[in-house]
Amino acid sequence: MPDSAPGPGGPIPPYPPAPWAFRGHLWVALLPVRGRLPVPPDLRPLICASLLAVGLVRYREGTLVYDELAMGPLVRRGRRAGLLIDRIWVDDAASVRGGREVWGLPKQLASFTWTDRSVHVTDHEGPVASLAFRPGRLRLPAFPMPLPGFSGPAGRRLFVPGRLVGSPRLEKVAVTSWSERLPPLERTTARFSLAVRPFRMTVPGPVRC
């Protein structure tokens, strides 16, 4: 385990080595944006370059306990496909350091304010986004699902073959506030959205691709 390093508010807690294992709640939404999202030249859009994938996670038990908001385009490289995580916020300093040093993720610290059916995320620059949820009735039995992602810059691209087991259900996700720092949205309701709660997740170390 790496030694802790000093930070602006004191020593940063050490992070555990990969793999990380969790239990918690997950929401995924595909939001239409104006224009096309930038995709690095070593990757190709998977579905459409005008859809932003947004993942909101509450890691309630496991390696670390924290909240996370991640977003980016869905892309492929050869036979591999997943979310290119180009923006990601968490509320735990050890997760920031581990995410950057193990998986090459551009994690930033933020605060998450929750109600029963909404969350508001704020970082050091101000509000990031607010999302609202409306649970649906359809729920499937638990089954294993891949949860793949890409990280790192072109030339040092990493692939993370995450795995998830849970009971997906259709839930409507809507944006109630959205920072100007983020890609501009075509509309504030998701084209497709679902929740997996509860889930069991394993995030292994990345592989070069």
From TrEMBL:
Question: What SUPFAM superfamilies does UniProt report for this protein, alphabetically?
Answer: Acetoacetate decarboxylase-like
Biological classification of the source: Bacteria, Bacillati, Actinomycetota, Actinomycetes, Kitasatosporales
- Protein name, please? Acetoacetate decarboxylase family protein
- Pfam families attached here? ADC (PF06314)
InterPro entries according to UniProt: Acetoacetate_decarboxylase (IPR010451), ADC_dom_sf (IPR023375)
